Structures are given as C-alpha cells and as structure tokens.
C-alpha cells in the first residue's frame, strides 16, 4: 500500500495512493462506515496502519473502485507525510564512496549517527533555504525507514517486522559549519527546511528487496550520484537493531539511512531524490543571503 498526505481545502489529510487516483481516508470512512484516522501520523502511532493494509490487500483497487467515491487526481498538492515525529535519526558516511567525497574514513564498527529536530521538516515542492550562517550547504538523497511499532533491543533478524514503510528523503547539511568543527554535526543538520520527505510512504510488502533499491541524488535534472542500498556499510536491519539498543524506537520515528552523494546547493537550484519504485521527491533551493 502507498499512502501520502495532501493539502485539501486548507488542511492536510491522509490518502491512499492508487494507480487511478487518491482516496482520502475521510472519504473511505464516509463511504464504507469505517473509522480510520485521517492523519497519517495518528494512523501509524495508533497501530492501525497494519490493519488498514490488511483491508487494502483484501479489497484491492477493484474494491476501491466500487466505493461511491470520486478519486482525486494523482497530481495533488503533497505535504510531508507528517510533521512531528518523536525522533529523526540520520546516518552519516554510510556509503564508502560518499566518505571519500568528504576526505573522511567511513565508519566500520558502528554508524555515525546524529539526530534532527522536526522543525527541519518540509514536503515535496517546498523550498530548501540556505541559511545566512552557511556559505556551503549540500543536499543528498536518502532512503528513509519509518518505524511502525514501539520496540527496544530488536534482534537484527526481526528488524523488518517493525517497519511501517519506506520513504524518499532529502537531507541537507551546512557543510562549512561541519568542517569547521566535527562536533558541529547536529548544528549543521538542524536548520529549518533541512529535511524533506515524501511524497509517498510505501509499506514493506510493496518492495521485493530493499537492498536492491537504487538511491540517486539529482541536481537540476542531472544525476549527481547513485548507489544501491546493498552497498551501505550498515544496512537497514542493522540500523534498526543498533539504534533500538540505544533508545526505545516509537511508531513514526524515522531513520534516514545515508546518501550515495551530496550535491552543493546554490540559489535557484532544484535538488531531487530518485529511488526505484517511488515517485521523485523534488525541492527548489533559495539562498537567504541572495536579495
């Protein structure tokens, strides 16, 4: 199942994405007598996403087509899937090639993790803002993992069982601030608009093998860097197991798994994440220092 959040009549509401169009959960409730949360974050944190997916697998697009509803066009005004996760974990230098770009040595024993505040969140088409404090900001495509259940000390072999879905991410870094002092990692990652994600959250049953997904950073329509998830130093199952040893993971928490390569952003650019099987995530760039 594919889900998204769109802006509809001045508010944000969750939809099921089908090949024929978008089905708002509010309309599903009205037409079928169900009571699914119309907010994607609530759907995840309440544990009802798995039940909705079971309904969807049983009903299918044919069943949706029989409902007395009119699907919305796929070309909607997409918002971020949700805006206030409890935690966003980011993973630095998770591809060896990206570490070489920064003249760094890729971690080999444990991931280079950092956290980001939810004030960094923007959605598809929103503007990435290069802050006044940075002269060199980069953007990078990443595969995001959305946690689906409260968990602690997850065995690696069970890690995929706690995933609600996968989502494209563009993560920004004020690279010059980081280069001045490696202890500035959190600072360099925490500016407003420095975390875009969406448009679709895709449940694990829709993806044959996450390790085969290609993740690519595009700048102004041109490929900057591409790599496959299998080439990560720390793969998704390891990242979940490892971080669940550090702290309890909660539904809606996000792990951004690292990038094959970051592109330097300038005023007027467009940064894009392209991942196999997902629609493109794209954001324009504005440098706040340019008048």
> What structural class results from the helix and strand content?
alpha+beta
**Coarse morphology:** globular
- Total helix count? 7
CATH architecture of the largest domain: Alpha-Beta Complex
Assigned CATH superfamily of the largest domain: Fumarylacetoacetase-like, C-terminal domain
Compute the gyration radius: what is it? 19 Å
Percent of residues in helical segments? 10-25%
The CATH topology of the largest domain: Fumarylacetoacetate hydrolase, domain 2
How would you describe what is shown here?
This protein is of the alpha+beta class and 291 residues long. It is 20% helix and 33% strand. It contains seven helices and 18 strands. It is globular and about 60 Å long. It starts with a strand and ends with a strand. The relative contact order is 0.20.
Task: State the gist of this model.
With 291 residues, this protein is an alpha+beta fold. Helix content is 20%, strand content 33%.
Topology of helices and strands:
Layout: E1 2-8, E2 11-18, E3 21-24, H1 25-32, H2 40-45, H3 49-65, E4 78-79, E5 88-92, H4 96-101, E6 112-115, E7 121-122, E8 128-130, E9 137-147, E10 163-174, H5 175-180, H6 185-189, E11 195-197, E12 201-202, E13 214-219, E14 222-228, H7 236-246, E15 254-256, E16 262-264, E17 270-275, E18 281-287
Notable characteristics:
five-stranded antiparallel beta sheet; alpha+beta; 291 residues; 20% helix; 2 domains; single chain
């Amino acid at each position: 199942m594919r889900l998204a959040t769109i802006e509809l009549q001045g508010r944000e509401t969750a939809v099921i994405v089908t090949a024929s169009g978008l089905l708002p959960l509010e309309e599903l409730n009205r037409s079928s007598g169900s009571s699914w949360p119309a907010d994607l974050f609530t759907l995840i944190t309440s544990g009802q996403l798995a039940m909705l997916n079971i309904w969807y697998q049983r009903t299918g697009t044919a069943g949706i087509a029989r409902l007395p509803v009119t699907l919305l066009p796929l070309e909607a005004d997409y918002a971020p899937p949700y805006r206030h996760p409890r935690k966003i974990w980011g993973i630095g230098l998770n591809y060896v090639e990206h570490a070489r770009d920064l003249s760094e040595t890729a971690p080999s024993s444990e991931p280079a993790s950092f956290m980001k505040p939810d004030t960094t969140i923007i959605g598809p088409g929103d503007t990435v803002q290069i802050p006044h404090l940075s002269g060199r900001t980069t953007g990078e495509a990443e595969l995001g993992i959305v946690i689906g259940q409260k968990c602690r000390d997850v065995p690696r072999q069970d890690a995929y069982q706690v995933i609600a879905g996968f989502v494209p991410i563009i993560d920004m870094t004020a690279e010059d601030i980081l280069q001045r002092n490696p202890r500035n990692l959190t600072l360099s990652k925490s500016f407003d608009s420095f975390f875009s994600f969406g448009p679709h959250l895709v449940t694990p049953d829709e993806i044959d093998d996450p390790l085969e997904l290609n993740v690519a950073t595009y700048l102004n329509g041109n490929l900057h860097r591409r790599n496959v998830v299998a080439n990560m130093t720390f793969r998704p199952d390891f990242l979940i197991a490892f971080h669940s040893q550090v702290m309890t993971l909660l539904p809606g928490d996000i792990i951004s798994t690292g990038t094959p390569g970051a592109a330097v952003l300038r005023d007027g650019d467009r940064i894009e994440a392209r991942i196999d099987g997902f629609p493109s995530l794209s954001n324009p760039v504005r440098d706040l220092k340019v008048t």
